[in-house]
Design goal:
Four copies of one chain form a homotetramer. By secondary structure, chain A is of the alpha+beta class. Chain A is 63% helix and 10% strand. Chain A contains 15 helices and eight strands. The radius of gyration of chain A is 30 Å and the shape is extended. The mean pLDDT of chain A is 81. Chains in contact: A-B, A-C, A-D, B-C, B-D, C-D. At the C-D interface, α8, α10, α11 and α12 of C face α2, α6, α7, α10 and α11 of D.
Chain lengths: 387, 387, 387, 387
Amino acid sequence: MASVSARRRVYEIIEPGIKRDGLARLFEGVSILIILASVAGAVCSTLPELDPGFRHLLYLSELVFGLFFLGEYAARLWTTPEHPVFGGEKGHGVLAHMLTPLMVLDAAGLVPFFLLLAYPEAQAFILIYQILRFFRLARYSPALATVGRVLSNEWRPLMAAGLIGMGLLLVSATGMYLIEHEVQPERLGSIPAAMYWAVVTVVTVGYGDVVPITPLGKHFTGFVMLGGLIFFALPVAIIATGFLAEIRRRDFIVNYGMVARVPAFAGLDGAALAELVSLLRARKFPPDTIIIRKGDEGDSMYFIASGEVEVVLPNSTIRLQEGDFFGEVAVLGRIRRTATVIARRTSELLVLDAADVVKFMDQNPRVAAVLREAMAERVMAQDVVSA
Amino acid sequence: MASVSARRRVYEIIEPGIKRDGLARLFEGVSILIILASVAGAVCSTLPELDPGFRHLLYLSELVFGLFFLGEYAARLWTTPEHPVFGGEKGHGVLAHMLTPLMVLDAAGLVPFFLLLAYPEAQAFILIYQILRFFRLARYSPALATVGRVLSNEWRPLMAAGLIGMGLLLVSATGMYLIEHEVQPERLGSIPAAMYWAVVTVVTVGYGDVVPITPLGKHFTGFVMLGGLIFFALPVAIIATGFLAEIRRRDFIVNYGMVARVPAFAGLDGAALAELVSLLRARKFPPDTIIIRKGDEGDSMYFIASGEVEVVLPNSTIRLQEGDFFGEVAVLGRIRRTATVIARRTSELLVLDAADVVKFMDQNPRVAAVLREAMAERVMAQDVVSA
Amino acid sequence: MASVSARRRVYEIIEPGIKRDGLARLFEGVSILIILASVAGAVCSTLPELDPGFRHLLYLSELVFGLFFLGEYAARLWTTPEHPVFGGEKGHGVLAHMLTPLMVLDAAGLVPFFLLLAYPEAQAFILIYQILRFFRLARYSPALATVGRVLSNEWRPLMAAGLIGMGLLLVSATGMYLIEHEVQPERLGSIPAAMYWAVVTVVTVGYGDVVPITPLGKHFTGFVMLGGLIFFALPVAIIATGFLAEIRRRDFIVNYGMVARVPAFAGLDGAALAELVSLLRARKFPPDTIIIRKGDEGDSMYFIASGEVEVVLPNSTIRLQEGDFFGEVAVLGRIRRTATVIARRTSELLVLDAADVVKFMDQNPRVAAVLREAMAERVMAQDVVSA
Amino acid sequence: MASVSARRRVYEIIEPGIKRDGLARLFEGVSILIILASVAGAVCSTLPELDPGFRHLLYLSELVFGLFFLGEYAARLWTTPEHPVFGGEKGHGVLAHMLTPLMVLDAAGLVPFFLLLAYPEAQAFILIYQILRFFRLARYSPALATVGRVLSNEWRPLMAAGLIGMGLLLVSATGMYLIEHEVQPERLGSIPAAMYWAVVTVVTVGYGDVVPITPLGKHFTGFVMLGGLIFFALPVAIIATGFLAEIRRRDFIVNYGMVARVPAFAGLDGAALAELVSLLRARKFPPDTIIIRKGDEGDSMYFIASGEVEVVLPNSTIRLQEGDFFGEVAVLGRIRRTATVIARRTSELLVLDAADVVKFMDQNPRVAAVLREAMAERVMAQDVVSA
């Protein structure tokens, strides 16, 4: 029984995102540092002018990193029974676990360690496997995972764009081969050779090592380059659109969590809440930065998700904290800012644009009542102060 | 009578998209392979260092491919009476059929066969017609057809962008000609020559074979390059926007068909259904991939269009199949995922983002009732299990 | 009185867009041809290897074109009283008319004519003014005018992007100058010289005539290029967005006019009509093209704005004309296309996507009734035919 | 007491955006001119062929500019008590003020002055600090500040894109190093050297100073360039989207202020007003430009925020001013423009597209009544005139 719970504890530490306690965070930090150090070491090891002493240090550190990765890999195999997919009675077992992409990547990262001990002269292989370790970061960064998701989401249009691009490259390379293979046999002497020129031209890199030299070739190149604009536009548009949609989805989830900390929104029904969250933008302010400046146009109001801000009134200051809001006086009264507001600690604010404030209040009278009441109180307080 | 029905059968086999039975699919697959092999052979045949034996093999295979294309072309002409446009009593007949773009392309693909037999030394012509066969794929891929549709949809703005680009190129080439035609007469000695420099510069290819060498020419080049950014932006934006709109339209149709397999949506009226479909995204999961991981944020719910998934509960697992849904507990309860879900077979899922779930349920109480009931049952079942 | 009406007639002919009768169209066509011929002649005249006979021909044609432009300019001045701005009792008169941008451009186009007669050796000036004639096309093409409108609309963000770009170029040039002005004094010996390198690099042209040669310079170049991506993104995004918005506005107006020809939409109130127009896309089909193919998915329905289409039924065909609609059976019944439809003449169709059909019908019961009735009739008719 | 109010006055003059009276505007203009002159002087001072007399002039002007910046810096420190953040009883004082980014930048701008007096041979340092003065413009231009805001808003996706880009560069550089480090040891002899090639290739600059020379290297380069398209798309899309959103937000605020000057919109409730403002576009017309031409399509109506326009009727003209509107006759009557309208003074107009006019009127009957009444009057007036 004890060994099972120890295995559970190890699993929680080495698997990111299960539990975020001290040891798990420490392990994550150390792992990322070792991955980066190991990749940096591999990059440096290719410098021909490297000092032999430093090269020896790299060799030693590689052995240490290798031991670390070996231990981690062993721990992952050992904790397979805790894994939701491969563990349990109906799980697929250790072998299936070893064949998942991330575990294969981990295993690949072990290759340099054994090669260094056994065949240290296989430098190219060692280097490739060392550099591949960079992608172990995928375990810790959702960014790389997002890209994978976008590519799998947009598979069909990307294939279509690829087919069009392939056709364009084929026609370009064939045309150039026919036009110039006799005057430049060493550079454009076959369609595969002309294909290199076509790719370099179509993606607008344009090294200049293969260029047209006949007038006809130059005219043809002009049309190929204009056609390249089209080819260039499609994958860029597809991936950019897909990526931004993924980012927007993640932002929604993050803001959704923050809204729960603002009492003014308590009791909103589902549809209103979902609409509100899609209108809010999260912004972070470091300590002692001005959020609102007296006299500016009132372009948005703010809800405090965390941190602390200070409203500077003529003769006094007011501190606002998590769950409070401010900036509604200028927005609702359509006047300029009546006070300066400063972040006193690192503060996460939810910003609602002026246009959205009025629209949203119109459709949600309960929220409107809360905001208007707060505004009335504050305007009165200020009048008393200035009186 | 028999011959008519034989012709009908041949027509169904060789015309893509009429019937998708075994023979039609086989014919489609073989056609695509032969097109690709024929183009690849043409590309290889230009390699000067090619082994004579392999070159002879290419020659023989070209003859075989040519016979295949010849037979296909003859079959298409023979089946003209079955064609909806050119067949029938009021149809335009075989000649009109031969003049359609796709049939002209097919006829062009026959040229290499006859030339190889009659004038094998006309290599350039043979090569051009061989490469053109790549575009026969348009018959089998809707992607190439989509591009044509986008170009015809966006004809007017593209013409406008072209006119602007032409003006920019004219002014750039004239300016450069006037500034440097005396110092670089061999490279910029006429406006047509300077036009080559202008195109290479404006589309940001920048080979470097023609560059300004006077200070004034360098200043002028700076402005031309900045102007090129504008020219570059327009066609890219137009085509990218048009293409994405076409893709979105096709996705709508595909998802529209899938929704019919989900009982929870049965009985939705037209407007609600159309809105729902535009909110859903289709995603495919290979076997044994994790769809939801216990403890993650609940950012969306899933409907199974095809395949099978497994919900991993502490002491048991539940299998869900076509028409079922899952992931609603975390979304509606605004809590973290309470169970891991794994795709057991290749599964097509329809994903509905959390924001859209709450909005859509608010407007469609009947769907909301179905989902809430299912959720209540599941939460209860889990409580029983953990109790 | 007679001379006034003659002036009016001349004004209607030479001013595009006033009246579109035969003479006005002829004048427009001839003007565009002469502009293009004159610019092409100017481009050709710079070819050093030009045949003297052809050069003489260019000289003569330039004199003819010059006379034409002179006559047109005189006619425009003469018809000033008919101009809505400069004519009339309260108008600003001929002088103000001469100072408008288009008239200044016209006057500039006259310079080559007089220079050729007086100082034929001033070749550079003659050439510049000849090339500027290209922009006379702005009178006939709304495209060039649209670009001007976009630039004036987006003036503020473009200035902002320009300021940021300037800062980036300054820092890049200064850094490169400091790093490499001693090793490459002839290429990077001053900040203005380094600025040429910076522009060529930042807009990703990359001629390669000035490149970093020190390791530090290469590192610095890497950061400059990544910074260039940002600079590149801003003006592209601003202009592309603005241009697409202008295009969409024009499309709305064009479709708005077409909708009036469809009886099914008669009597829609303003808001419904505006919404409908923004949903419709106009598409043109040449004669004898398939619009719908039997058995395809029903992804949209069509309204005929002009032209004629033929619905191919098993034993008969139906002709539909301006104001008719088709394709609603598959969309509303959620089935595959039940008949093939072919354009018999050049036809302008208004396309409504399936998603929009159901949404729009839900909100406009009167249109829904018209469409459903038509559908019922057609389905019945087909049943009778097949029975 | 007098000294306090003098300090207040100085603060109002030197701090942009507090008060916009004559002295403050003068100070702002002079500051911008001196910043630009100082940067231009620094750029010129690097020209090796510079005339010694002009160089001396630059030296003297640098001393004058330095004194100006010194005075301004001193004034800013002196007026710290007036600063909303650092002044007041609870403020953080002068030292905290000195450590804000803008003040550090100001202090950096003083370095050249002291270095020129003390160590005039430290030319590189002097130059760097002189060029940095360009960013003092951030105080006067909201554009540079907007970029900062966009970068801070989009921090997370940019980091993600950066990580992906880094992985791509690593793999590209390693691959190229392994393939070609033996044939091009001086150019691709280490991974850091290959990294330079990778960056130049991936951002499509393509200098051509390092290019693949082996067939395998050329194939690999093809894939790297296609991968570069993806890397290129992400940061461009992220920044462009973020920037456009910021611009739209600012436009909303500007238009919001203008709408208050149009009586027809008085009394609209918050939600309707916010919707209206998001539909309006502000456009500026210089004097004597045609806004509407008789006979054109009626694509939008106009509200005058400032300036004066003239409606040209057959026998008379009408002058319209701030608060008036025009163009509604063609839009609401769905006819062509019935009169030409000309801007007589520089006029700021709020444009509402035809589609939005009908939609907005449908939802706001009060505005509709005002517009229809005005239209009825005008049509009647014209009938009387033409009768």
